[in-house]
Specification:
There is one protein chain. The protein has 367 residues and is an alpha/beta fold. The protein is built from 14 helices and 10 strands. Strands 1, 2, 3, 4, 5, 6, 7, 8, 9 and 10 form a 10-stranded mixed sheet that branches. Strand 1, helix 3 and strand 2 form a beta-alpha-beta unit.
Length: 367
């Protein structure tokens, strides 16, 4: 009897040991079990700008995408540079699946190896995208099309009989001294303004000195440089500024709210670009993330995006009619695509020169 009991005891101990030490999994198997991938994914995380982009994704695109796929879209709001920093910090364990960047940060993320290649083989609807909106070939999908351009208060200009803005140089005039809303160079709008001023004065991306010289005069007629759109837009709404340089979508939003604001295209042209969606490298939810990007550049989604004041990036599509008066582009209007690789390369140097040479000139010509 004792022998039988001992045998039973030994068998029970073996069984317990087997439970405590299950059969080892193949490399990577444990990680797979804890991270849904492929068709098992039920949610993805998208990071992008706040404001109208956040509202468009949260309230319009995400619900439509969930209806079609069953995949929930979670949104994190932040500036492009902040999102780039997060993606870099998380590169070994991505938490963001789709990252929206301004063109310069598309280039920076690509150069750092933080994003997956995007083309027609991974995102089928890329075949219908207007190439003018593509910031960096195969690095990201353009989604929210725009230009960065001057805009002015039509009522103030009419009342005071101010000459129309025909050149980027016309931004630096005593007609509206102290009533301007220009961005600091660390904002994408400010950097594009500096580049446009360089072009207007015989410079180029390789020779920004003429732009910096004109920017000093621009600063002289300005009381301050604004950090971002959340500061600039109220200044226009409240009548503190009559002239600005903004993304066309922000101009459209202000005009739709009742502000008598109208975009103008200077003779030197305006930069055509887009907020672009990038696939984060090493993302375990890449298949679901790619589906989301493919949907938001479809003609169906681009029609919804155009209704929010953006230029649709799909070939042959036009901006919604309700925005034609405020930000409509005529066939005769000049647009151009900057060299964003060079933008990225000189950004730090230009920011340093701006802070040392341009910012100290603020307000000197206002009195």
């Amino acid at each position: 009897m004792k022998k039988i009991m001992s045998l039973i005891t030994i068998m029970m101990l073996f069984a317990l040991a087997a439970c405590a030490n299950p059969t080892p999994k193949k490399p990577g198997e444990a990680a797979k079990a804890n991270t849904a991938s492929g068709s098992d994914v039920k949610e993805i995380t998208v990071a992008g700008n706040g404001g109208v982009i956040e509202k468009t994704i949260r309230d319009v695109l995400a619900p439509k995408f969930k209806e079609k796929t069953g995949i929930q879209v979670n949104f994190i709001a932040g500036l492009s540079g902040e999102i780039l920093s997060k993606v870099e910090l998380q590169k070994n364990a991505p938490q963001i699946d789709v990252a929206f960047f301004v063109p310069v940060d598309v280039q920076r993320a690509f150069d750092k190896g933080l994003t997956e290649p995007i083309d027609e083989t991974t995102i089928a609807n890329m075949k219908d995208v207007d190439p003018r909106f593509v910031a960096v070939d195969k690095a990201a999908a353009p989604v929210f099309g725009l230009v960065i351009a001057p805009a002015y208060n039509t009522e103030t200009f009419k009342k005071n009989q101010i000459k129309p803005i025909e050149s980027w140089n016309d931004l630096a005039r005593p007609d509206y001294k102290g009533k301007t809303a220009f961005s600091d160079i660390n904002n994408d709008w400010g950097f594009n303004t500096l580049y446009a001023l360089a072009l207007a004065n015989g410079g180029s991306i390789d020779n920004m000195a003429p732009g910096l010289k004109k920017a000093k005069e621009l600063a002289g007629y300005s009381s301050t440089f604004y950090k971002n759109s959340t500061q600039m837009m109220p200044a226009i709404q409240q009548g503190a500024a009559d002239v600005t340089v903004m993304g066309s979508y922000a101009i459209a939003e202000l005009a739709a709210s009742g502000v008598p604001l109208k975009m103008t295209v200077p003779k030197e042209g305006v930069p055509l670009q887009a907020f672009s969606a990038a696939l984060v490298k090493n993302d375990p939810r890449k298949e679901a993330a790619a589906k989301f990007i493919n949907y938001i550049i479809s003609k169906e989604a681009q029609a919804l995006i155009a209704d929010k004041g953006f230029y649709p990036v799909a070939k042959g599509m036009k901006i919604a009619k309700k925005y034609e008066d405020s930000i409509g582009l005529k066939d005769t209007d000049k647009t151009f695509k900057p060299d964003f690789a060079k933008f990225a390369a000189i950004r730090a140097e230009m920011s340093d020169k701006w802070s040392k040479e341009v910012t100290p000139e603020l307000g000197k010509l206002v009195k």
